[in-house]
Amino acid sequence: MGIKNILFISSEFPPGPGGIGNHAWNLSRELNNYIPVHVLTVSDYAEENECVQFDNKEKMYLYRFKRYNLSFLTYLKRVYDIVLHLAKNRYSHCILSGRFSLYTSNFIRLISGSIKLIGALHGSELVPATKLSRLLLKRSLKNLNIFISVSQYTDKLIPLNSIDKSKRYIIPNGVNVENIDKSKNSFSKILSGKPCLISVGSITDRKGQVNLVRSLPLIIKKYPQVHYHCIGLPIKNEELLKVAKKLKVDRHLTLHGFLPNDQLFDSYKQSDILIMLSQNKASSDVEGFGIVVLEANLCGVSAIGSKDTGIEDAIVQNKTGKLVNPYSPEEVLDAINQILNNKEKFSLNALEWSRQHNWNIIVNKYLQIIENA
């Protein structure tokens, strides 16, 4: 059976933040250039008028689930909306991205036994925290025809060893090359620091900003003018600032909050190194890839990232950046030294690497797999 049309259900989507949403947006719009794609998604962390303005610029069909005061009503209405779309459009394929989206495979399979279900797997949805979520995950994965992980790390998290390997694929995240051309000095702030270090992602335990803060006392001895800029939702800002003040490095730290794409790319351009010292300590929250690494690379900025996370697929060791033990200030400082001492070489390698992940290249890998699902 060929690809007639695609239903794409995602747990995140722009203009809200998040790597899953970034992936869903770029993949769906690229697929829509070849096959009709209908996107069903949420609008968390974004105002309604922002979503309307965003959606009006898109060529594909977009439907955003509403969130109600009662969680039960929210998810019941989402199920109802999905059922209506399935009945009206008779999709040939459905891509599920994110935890809730993956769980919907249980009733989608009941409604349509012929639809091809493709799981776009990122990481955290594969490490459930409760018995109920473990049961839902197991049942959900059994419904899928194809498993597409964004990294080798994510693929290894798939809990069902009995799954036929022929159904499992790894396709890395892509990067939107257009974004670098759209950012024209729209970020009014000048980022300080020599070197200027930056991280992008919600301030959380998983993103590991605290690991760089704990490394700052040692880094400052070598680079007294260093400054660390954190961009992302301020979920655990207070905790991070508390650590920084305790270590007396808070004057070397600035928390900028969430920035839209155009301002984000301007901030990349001002930085010397992207820092992603993510940690997979949380039982249900892991770093599956780290798409911001490719975004920074697109601006010629190399990255330092954590070993034993999905970031290993985003960084080519000693070429586009450095992979380190995130809990070792000595390794972090050594990586900074090596990159700054060979900045031009790392920058050129990073730029070349990012362009290999242009979404118009990545989408062809998806098309080939989906066609043969």
Side-by-side strand order of the widest sheet: 3-2-1-4-5-6-7
Structural class: alpha/beta
CATH architecture of the largest domain: 3-Layer(aba) Sandwich
Query: What is the CATH domain class of the largest domain?
Result: Alpha Beta
**CATH homologous superfamily of the largest domain - what is it?**
Glycogen Phosphorylase B
Show unreliable segments. none
As a percent range, the share of strand residues is 15-25%
Helix percentage range: 40-55%
Number of helices: 15
Protein described:
There is one protein chain. By secondary structure, the protein is an alpha/beta fold. The protein folds into two domains: 6-174 and 358-371, Glycogen Phosphorylase B (Rossmann fold, 3-Layer(aba) Sandwich); 179-355, Glycogen Phosphorylase B (Rossmann fold). The chain is built from 15 helices and 13 strands. The chain has helices spanning 19-31, 48-56, 71-89, 99-103, 105-111, 131-143, 152-157, 178-182, 209-222, 237-246, 261-270, 291-298, 329-341, 343-355, 359-371; strands at residues 6-10, 37-41, 61-64, 93-97, 116-121, 146-149, 168-170, 196-200, 227-231, 253-257, 273-276, 302-306, 321-324. The strands form two sheets. The chain has a seven-stranded parallel beta sheet with strand order 3-2-1-4-5-6-7. Helix 10 (237-246) links the parallel strand 9 and strand 10. The longest helix has 19 residues, at 71-89. The chain starts with 5 loop residues before the first strand and ends with a helix.
